[in-house]
Amino acid sequence: MDHPHGGPAGPAGHAGHEMGGAVSTLDTWAAVLFIGWAVVMWAAVVVVAYANRGPVRPWLFRTSVAVIGLGVVGQIGHFQEHVVQAGYWVANPYSAAWMTPWANSIARGMGQVDPTKPALGMEILHLTGNFIFLAGLVGIVQITRRATGALKARKWAKMGVWMQGIHGIEHIVLTLSVALGASRAIGLSTWFGAIDPGPALVTYRVWWHFVANLIGTAILAAALFHLWKEKKAVKDGYLPEPAAGDRPLLQASDSAEHSVRGAEPVRERELVSRS
Questions:
Q1: Mean pLDDT throughout 11-37?
Q2: Would you say 108 and 138 are in contact if contact means Cβ atoms under 8 Å apart?
Q3: Torsion-angle region of 15 (φ positive above 0: left; ψ -120 to 50: alpha; else: beta)
Q4: Burial of 221 (0-12, 13-18, 19+ CB in 10 A)
Q5: Given this model, what pLDDT does residue 36 score?
Q6: Is pLDDT of 256 > 60?
Q7: Of 116, 212, 111, residue with least CA distance to 171
Q8: Residue 152 in contact with residue 221, Cβ under 8 Å?
Q9: Please, are residues 235 and 65 in contact by the beta-carbon 8 Å criterion?
């Protein structure tokens, strides 16, 4: 799903990925919906993060679960693009990088922001996909926020947020470099533009992003695994807090129960002494 680009084709005719073709209404709607997906997720993350600072609310847990679910679905689609692309490279190591038809469609729709930069749509697509993934990881951090104790799910999710955050910065740099008129994308995955377009750049960028997403997906899987194992502790953090008027009654009930239990040994000793 990552395609070197910029400049003319290399010696063997290996330019960057050519999205080509006229932009259809379907392309436009696909791009709008994909960006909307990311915007809705991050809006939910901001709301949950703010609301988690206050008392428990019934919708907090459900909203966090929805954010995590959307992030998982997004990353499954994202990662399969990298798997397919790596597989295509194995079969065609000297060919230009390849994207699935649906990824091409979304990239074409996004490329309408500046038709003079053919690679811009593809870069925006990558940027959006990575931030959908990042929102899902942040969702795991937020849903475990109220749980007591050190949860492994939270530890793995935080690790993923740091790694995916760095990966996201890489895509911001790549996208901005193209948007600002660079002849090729500039970033770690292009060796800061030092590698000329061609098989070497295709190979480097395809495998750089494949490995980065493989590690990120493994971290997400570990976080989800531990989240499932620790779901009781997580859910307990969202139990409704007792109303202020109920607390004295609960405390009185606990005190009475404690008094009854404490009196039982005394009665037993009195019976023994009488006998």
A1: 75
A2: no
A3: beta
A4: middle
A5: 98
A6: no
A7: 212
A8: no
A9: no
51-75: pLDDT as tens digits: 999 999 889 999 999 999 999 999 9
Directed axis angle between helix 58-91 and helix 25-51, to 10°?
140
First to last CA, the chain: 87
DSSP structural state of residue 194: T
How far is Cα 14 from Cα 17, in angstroms, rounded to an integer?
A: 9
pLDDT at residue number 62: 95
Q: Both tokens of residue 33? A: 């919906």
Q: Which pLDDT value is given to residue 174?
A: 96
Q: Which residues contact 125 (CB under 8 A, 6 or more apart)?
A: 1, 34, 103, 106, 107, 110
Would you state the structure tokens that stand for residue 194, as one six-digit string?
């030092």
pTM beyond cutoff 0.70: yes
In this prediction, residue 242 carries a pLDDT of 64
Answer whether 38's CB lies under 8 Å from 239's CB: no
Give the Cα-Cα-Cα angle 107, 110, 114 (nearest 5 degrees).
Answer: 115
Place of tokens 């960057």: 16
Domain ranges of the chain: 25-236, 245-275
- Count CA within 13 A, CB hemisphere, residue 261: 6
Q: In whole angstroms, what is the distance from residue 108 CA to residue 128 CA?
A: 14
pLDDT digits (tens, 9 = 90+) for 109-122: 999 999 999 999 99
DSSP secondary structure, 223-241, as one string? HHHHHHHTHHHHHHTTSPP
In contact, 141 and 161? CB cutoff 8 Å: yes
Q: What angle do CA 27, 76, 108 make, to 5 degrees?
A: 15
**What's at 258, amino acid-wise?**
H
